[in-house]
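TASK: fixed-backbone design
INPUT:
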């Protein structure tokens, strides 16, 4: 079946947390429309850029784009940006059931509000390994009052201006900023309006006794989150489109770019409402929790619960977060075991660096920059000129394991910027070890959610401290590891992944924190480029392809 959408993308004033701000909308909405599809459907999104003065690209996060690498929507990697006024047609197949998302992948545009849910159901006649009565999508997000322009300019300035903590957390696009705190930012009357219906709390109405599948998606710019429903347990059943061996928790940790399905039964006292809350973990954040109503029918949806919202977990407790990461296993009966060995092991040391006075993030001391010609085009359509279009020197496969101290501020004066890429032999098995380290601040290491385009990977293991190639692989879970497309690397820890390079194209792999990617925290993989079909001409028009057009 073909599902055809026509989307118009523009800036509009919105008040998602009661504070009026320019937000990017799709057909007037942020979050944008939910894509509802069935496994095997073809999705066509005809996207018109009505932003007026800004380019655009949309990434379909979690969709592998098998056979359509040009529809991945990653500006600079798989396509030229969509220019103001232009219409671009994304076409791809949703080949697996599960919970996914879409969002802007141009500059730091995602955090201006361009995002939404993708929900792919199983084909008719196929049943899922768990039961529920109702299915709902909930997107968690953080929200800044400053514009993307101010933030991006600060990040690429010397002296560096950090974006800081977000002002609000949004649950399904709604939050609530305390207007009395809006003193210095903007004093125009009407800028903060606590009675604006746009920022009335999100409510999920439940029928007593019924079970709800909540598809949680985090699309935060910065924050790692905990999500909890007062007085209710939740059973985790899906992660990034893969069934999880069920486990029950009181709160779930979710990192930017991840999705989870949880089952919640409405089995508490039905005479009242309950809080759903989300709060920041892993950063000592000033951002207040986001609040929503878990509304037992027939109570009024906007009636506040009689209790105080439950406090989330302590922001700096790493143990429970690591424990959740370790608890996520593939569901019995749905295990796709990884190949027993790999052909190549690449270690990615994550560091914060100063390069020419600018604050950057690096992988193995190389900070990523995008080339003028997107890689897919450079590799496919450069007519023999690819070597001039990006740095051909292969980027490093690891770091100096013996001498590098991950617990100290690095003296990485040798760090560089580069647009070189990792070229993977087609159909080989690749292991990636994400190694965390200290930032430029003493005694500080941050959590980074890494997202891979075009593939799912097996999560083989997590550990604390420095990964040891001689002993740690013995701890890998090769029996029932979950497959995901986004995974956290915890502070001062490592995360080991395995994937098969079987999807012809050029694929980004990066930290899903918007500012960190902007500051260079990513890499690109190429595999099987010779198997990629002819690129649609709509992907071109920048870099070397500018010269292809003849009147
Ligand atoms: O990239 C970042 O920069 C700041 C800080 O390290 C320097 O101000 C921060 O918290 C980040 O995550």
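OUTPUT:
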């Amino acid at each position: 079946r073909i599902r055809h959408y026509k989307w118009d993308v523009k800036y509009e004033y919105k008040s998602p947390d009661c504070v009026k701000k320019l937000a990017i909308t799709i057909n007037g909405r942020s979050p944008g429309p939910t894509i509802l599809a069935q496994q095997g459907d073809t999705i066509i999104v005809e996207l018109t850029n009505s932003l007026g003065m800004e380019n655009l690209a949309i990434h379909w996060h979690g969709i592998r784009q098998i056979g359509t690498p040009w529809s991945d929507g990653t500006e600079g990697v798989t396509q030229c940006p969509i220019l103001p006024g232009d219409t671009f047609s994304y076409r791809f197949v949703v080949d697996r059931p599960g919970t996914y998302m879409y969002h802007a992948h141009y500059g730091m545009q995602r955090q201006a509000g361009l995002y939404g849910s993708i929900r792919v159901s199983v084909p008719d006649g196929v049943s899922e390994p768990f039961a529920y009565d109702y299915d709902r999508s909930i997107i968690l997000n953080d929200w800044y009052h400053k514009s993307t322009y101010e933030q991006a300019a600060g990040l690429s300035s010397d002296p560096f201006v950090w974006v800081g903590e977000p002002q609000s957390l949004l649950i399904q696009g709604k939050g609530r900023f305390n207007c009395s705190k809006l003193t210095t930012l903007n004093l125009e009357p009407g800028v903060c309006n606590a009675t604006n219906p746009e920022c009335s709390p999100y409510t999920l109405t439940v029928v007593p006794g019924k079970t709800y599948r909540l598809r949680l998606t985090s699309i935060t710019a910065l924050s790692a989150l905990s999500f909890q429903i007062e007085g209710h347990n939740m059973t985790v059943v899906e992660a990034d489109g893969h069934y999880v061996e069920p486990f029950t928790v009181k709160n779930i940790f979710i990192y930017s770019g991840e999705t989870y399905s949880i089952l919640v039964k409405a089995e508490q006292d039905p005479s009242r409402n309950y809080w759903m809350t989300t709060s920041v973990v892993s950063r000592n954040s000033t951002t207040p929790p986001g609040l929503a109503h878990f509304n037992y029918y027939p109570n009024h949806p906007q009636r506040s619960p009689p209790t105080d919202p439950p406090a989330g977990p302590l922001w700096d407790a790493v143990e429970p977060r690591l424990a959740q990461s370790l608890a996520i296993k593939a569901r019995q009966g749905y295990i796709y075991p990884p190949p027993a060995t790999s052909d190549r092991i690449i270690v990615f040391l994550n560091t914060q660096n100063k390069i020419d006075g600018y604050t950057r993030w690096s992988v193995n001391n190389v900070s990523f920059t995008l080339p003028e010609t997107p890689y897919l085009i450079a590799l496919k359509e450069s007519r023999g000129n690819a070597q001039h279009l990006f740095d051909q020197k292969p980027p490093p496969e690891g770091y100096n394991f013996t001498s590098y101290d991950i617990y100290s501020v690095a003296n990485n004066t040798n760090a560089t910027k580069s647009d070189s890429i990792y070229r993977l032999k087609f159909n080989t098995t690749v292991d990636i070890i994400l190694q965390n380290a200290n930032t430029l601040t003493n005694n500080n290491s941050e959590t980074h959610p890494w997202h891979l385009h075009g593939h799912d990977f097996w999560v083989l293991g997590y550990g604390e401290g420095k990964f040891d190639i001689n002993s740690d692989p013995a701890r890998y879970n090769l029996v029932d590891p979950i497959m995901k497309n986004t995974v956290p690397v915890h502070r001062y820890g490592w995360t080991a992944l395995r994937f098969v390079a079987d999807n012809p194209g050029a694929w980004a792999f990066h930290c899903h924190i918007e500012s960190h990617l902007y500051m260079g925290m990513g890499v690109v993989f190429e595999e099987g480029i010779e198997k990629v079909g002819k690129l649609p001409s709509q992907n071109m028009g920048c870099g070397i392809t500018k010269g292809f057009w003849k009147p």
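COMMENT: The CA atoms of residues 15 and 198 lie 6 Å apart.
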